[in-house]
Amino acid sequence: MEIRTRSTDEAARDERVDVAIADRSMTMTRWFDAPRDRVWRAWTDPSELAQWWGPHGYTNPISEADARPDGSYRIVMHSPEGIDYPTTGRFLEVDPPNRLVFTDEATDMPPDWQAALDAQTPSTPPGTELRIVNTVTFEDRDDGTLLTITSAFLSNEERDAVVKLGAISGWSESFEKLDSLLAAA
Length: 185
Hints:
Layout lengths: L2 E2 L3 H4 L5 E6 L2 E8 L3 H9 L1 H7 L6 E7 L6 E7 L5 E12 L3 E7 L5 H10 L10 E11 L2 E9 L3 H9 L2 H18 L1
Parallel strand pairs: 1-2
Antiparallel strand pairs: 2-3, 3-9, 4-5, 5-6, 6-7, 7-8, 8-9
Helix pairs in contact: 2-3
């Protein structure tokens, strides 16, 4: 897997992930060889989310999603070491098959994860809950789908902490798993 910054056009028909870091945000772009409706379904159907969400080696014994405005989701990633990483949030916007906007709230993460976040964000009071707003767009491109996810943070410090905790590799590996799911369909 290679991660580099390039234009959106260059990301089309490419298995690599384009990453751009900006003020209080991180944007990742990747092209998938599947129709936009199919990629949308993989993002909104709980049984499909369970198959691709999270890094390699992680499973999702709990995957719940009510993809409608003000609907909620809960995904519990189970690591190869036996640690659960619960992610919860709310859908703010749902525009099938074009755009999803949802929060990512790390309120139930394990204490070691929270301690690592606290260590990376010294200007934030310890134990402060992380809340990210993710905007995912699905664009028809070159007989496939160009997916762009922009994660908005309250501060650059939080963004940098999440990057240091593995967000880029985690999303990249999730996209690889998503690609495999889409290819099998």
